[in-house]
Amino acid sequence: MTTRHVPDDWTDLDTRAVDTIRVLAADAVQKVGNGHPGTAMSLAPLAYTLFQKVMRHDPADPHWPARDRFVLSCGHSSLTLYIQLYLAGYGLELDDLKALRTWGSLTPGHPEYHHTKGVEITTGPLGQGLASAVGMAMAARRERGLFDPETPEGASPFDHFVYVVASDGDIEEGVTSEASSIAGRQELGNLIVFYDHNEISIEDDTNIALSEDVAARYEAYGWHVQKVDGGENVVAILEAIEAAKAVTDKPSFIQVRTIIGYPAPNLMNTGKAHGAALGTDEIVEVKKILGFDPEQTFQVDDEVIAHTRKAVERGEAAKTAWQAEFDQWAADQGEHKALFDRLTARELPQGWTDALPSYPADPKGVATRKASGEVLSALAPVLPELWGGSADLAESNNTTMKGADSAGPKAAATKDWNATPYGRTLHFGIREHAMGAILTGIAMHGPTRPYGGTFLTFSDYMRGAVRLAAVMGAPVTYVWTHDSIGLGEDGPTHQPIEHMAALRAIPNLSMLRPADANETVFAWRAVLERQTVWKTGPVGLALTRQNVPTLEGTSYEGVTKGAYVLADFDADAAGDSSDNKVILMASGSEVQIAVETKALLAAEGINARVVSVPCLDWFEVQDADYIASVLPQDVQARVSVEAGVAQPWWRWLGSAGRPVSIEHYGASADYKTLYEKFGITSAAAVAAAKESL
Amino acid sequence: MTTRHVPDDWTDLDTRAVDTIRVLAADAVQKVGNGHPGTAMSLAPLAYTLFQKVMRHDPADPHWPARDRFVLSCGHSSLTLYIQLYLAGYGLELDDLKALRTWGSLTPGHPEYHHTKGVEITTGPLGQGLASAVGMAMAARRERGLFDPETPEGASPFDHFVYVVASDGDIEEGVTSEASSIAGRQELGNLIVFYDHNEISIEDDTNIALSEDVAARYEAYGWHVQKVDGGENVVAILEAIEAAKAVTDKPSFIQVRTIIGYPAPNLMNTGKAHGAALGTDEIVEVKKILGFDPEQTFQVDDEVIAHTRKAVERGEAAKTAWQAEFDQWAADQGEHKALFDRLTARELPQGWTDALPSYPADPKGVATRKASGEVLSALAPVLPELWGGSADLAESNNTTMKGADSAGPKAAATKDWNATPYGRTLHFGIREHAMGAILTGIAMHGPTRPYGGTFLTFSDYMRGAVRLAAVMGAPVTYVWTHDSIGLGEDGPTHQPIEHMAALRAIPNLSMLRPADANETVFAWRAVLERQTVWKTGPVGLALTRQNVPTLEGTSYEGVTKGAYVLADFDADAAGDSSDNKVILMASGSEVQIAVETKALLAAEGINARVVSVPCLDWFEVQDADYIASVLPQDVQARVSVEAGVAQPWWRWLGSAGRPVSIEHYGASADYKTLYEKFGITSAAAVAAAKESL
Question: Which domains does chain B have, with CATH numbers?
């Protein structure tokens, strides 16, 4: 299994380079005293082959749109990637490898997007990389459809592949099971996954927890499955890649049996080689076996680095050849080129907001999920970059743009959905976690703007993906409907209580809970404007199932600031002083309650201001003057009204304020009964206001 | 596919009963105006066969320990269960079915444990039921091992089966993929899953999002797989169950092809039959087809209910027969019987706390994860009901009891782990979500006490399961280690920032973050005492990777109250007044910083009290006097110190208080550098105290 088998054009320098990788991996972890050497050692031939022999990429231009993507799903093996970036000439140098896992280095514990050139996506939480790669492969197809739909397969300047290296951990995580099933359904021929089947994880031999036939499972998903028996068999790896590329209607799964930590004589094939330094004695043995000087560390022969840095020239040549194709395409397809330029700049088209609906004030009102659906349908012709769908709740989440085709092969079509490869309605099935990761992958891949919907409660299922999107600042939008007990009869398992708090707690995720139809329009507008800058991060829209009144006084400017005065203190109120003033803060469907409460309080001689709070995350970063203008220091009587736990509101309530909240689970009944029974009412808000005064 | 095929002993009354189910399901949803009729109609023969012909159960004693368990993983089809409970005589009556999904009824939207007799587990969030059923099957084996290890298979009074009905949604969710892989590895012959393969979900034909060969996937997991072509084929269903029972070393997967909504002439086999009332016209047609009076609603013939209620007699007879076996076992195995009684009462053994370690004050200290591991090993011989493991992080989470065997078949053994079917170390693989659901299933099944570990960050992956455990109040313990930036080099993807806030927000989940080794011991003690009452809910322990000093003054009583004075104001401080007093609140590894800060402030003439806050959830439910004794009203200068977002602390900080917190993601470096760079230091706490004064 460890016999080297290399192709005819493979040189001794290639072999030396591969062995250099192993030695660098062992040395780098040893130097800092912690990290993951084993997989970087055993994957050296595969990673080297991909970066030096297979992938189309240009180290000088890591953003080349037609580059093949590389996703290291097993992010803990970050050295697998860092060493390739170093060898290929992406800007990492030996000192960077020596600084592994230390403050400020370009080589943190796990690969971080925005931080190290050539890292396509932040990985580490297992499963996310592979699942997001499915999104990348889907994005590649959609972008192809937007920019160059007519050119035959394989002949477009936008055609390329997505390569993934995944570990046992990635394979075990449910998110990859979900995403791989979707990839099979989607017939993603541009996706090639290597499963590093080393049968070792942290608890050592995976047999203790893994007995399934993984390859058979991927066959069941409809993938093209191959096996390579031995990580040193470069010939078989290359043949498998060629075969994978030739199958254009199935994603490819290549199971490579490797020996973790190879060739460490005592530690290879053990859990100890996975996540700890090998120790100097063992590293000396490795160096002896590979013909390196056991006295030296970080030994890289000049000829080796000169050899591997030829990747820069090859990249330049490939880019030049591609540029000619691209220029030809640009000349032939002016309209597509204009779209490409606009999207690449993340610009919105002139006058796009003219398409947005607006709603007259109306006590009966509209559900905010419905308004959201109307926004999406209105924007469909204006913003072709906008696309998305639902985890099997399209009609409930109102995520389908009217008249849009579904994204998928013809074989996916049903009597309700017309599927075409370049379609824009996404169908995730009941797979929220994969949806989250796929949306991230779409955003990572290119300039389109993805969204995805489920019930707000089931944001829990996708939280791993949401967090990673937030870490990267990926501009994706979650359409989370049925955002409170207001969903009614489905009961406590479906009613969000803690979710607004739990999601607001995530740094760099913006949670919007619009009060009515117009605030929903403003929310979408604000999100799309904001996401013209990539790093601004994901956004969650929390939307009602039930109708809410369309209110007077809502404002786009106000929404962009996160909170604003919807209805101010009555200027001419009798006995106006800070002693009888109270501020009523509310979000979403509870803003109407704050409005009612203001009127009730006025009747009792209490002067109230209603502050609509669509986004606490945006409010808290406003300047102090603005915050004080909305929540003046001299009015300490404050009430928050939100049908969820109060945790996020205390900061703004202060010592005197009182929340109207729900601190327990919901129940199954019609929503009006629930609001009454659980005390999310204007009567409760009046009582809280009096207590606060 | 809809041809009826029934066994010889099946009577016309049985057929009428099955058709009664369909009519009741349609009527109940129609009456309330919302709900899920379609699956309840098409699963009528299967559900009826299980409850009336197959399962060993006693409607008079829903807690009979040897009953077969029934898990309706597709909880939205709650009528499937409610109608069986009604027919079999569990206490539901026709009026309860008429009250479907209304306030206070016994028939809420989704089946709720603790609420409706005969409901084994709350379901609704898809995938959780099937995944928890894997835990039930594992628990059945462990309990068997604790109470009756010697009796041959099938001959023990504790032997029984776990039946599951799962839908397309359950099958698509990643959590079932994870759990099903574990079930295969564990060779759970006592688990029988029916996959209701109706090819319809909310977005109609599942072909739009599901093309995999599900049966082949389950074969790849190592399950025994069978297919039944048609939900009306009772003969085939019965044969498949017999075959499933006969295979004792594999879980069974029985794929039943049904037509959702059968026999509704216009709506069957459509998404519309899934989640909405059929409409009166369609229901009239159904009644005509089935020979019911189209003018009547909720029509149940007297002979039908008399026939089905014979389940009570059969249950009594089965129970009586079993009781003889049980009494014989009790007589033969006094020691096991004593254990059975103690565990069933959820009592802890006399003097069990004597086994707990305690630690001398020590500035170098111990990591709290290590102390937790020592608690577990110390309790191993005293509490056989305690068992658990990790999602492939055993050594990092310190979740393995010294000398304990692993739970699993011989075939799962590796050189590091000795697996036996009655072992107590659990190996979940890298499958956090399934771990969560399995732990819940273990707690639902019987009286053992399960725990499971991963990194705190990856609580995100298991959040769906954690929430459902909290909804039910299930007594499980999560060992979440590496609880802050203190984990160091693994960087932002692995460093919890928002997790304490996000988990504290979940109602009925207690989050403990002990300050040192002794508080860790007290935390485990408090949790085990607390969970002598079932409904008290799950607990998460947030534990450090890094060493923390073992402090003076920690207290068991204090831990049980959630927060307590660790080091009080200096009584003899010069110029003692509320003007120079500040309260320093901290949790976990930051309590040491609060202690340092007190000394620094004293040197500046500021008198500080240190409050250790191991559990905000427990503190906030203390009486007002206790809360005021810890946080006196006249000291409004307050500082919180926690290496995470401040959100949960504002309630206790009030208007004058200041948090020392981290509101952004972490970084990859050694932990001491990170604490310095991110300002989680006594210097920052001193500055915050001054600002607060």
Answer: 12-315 (3.40.50.970), 352-550 (3.40.50.970), 562-692 (3.40.50.920)
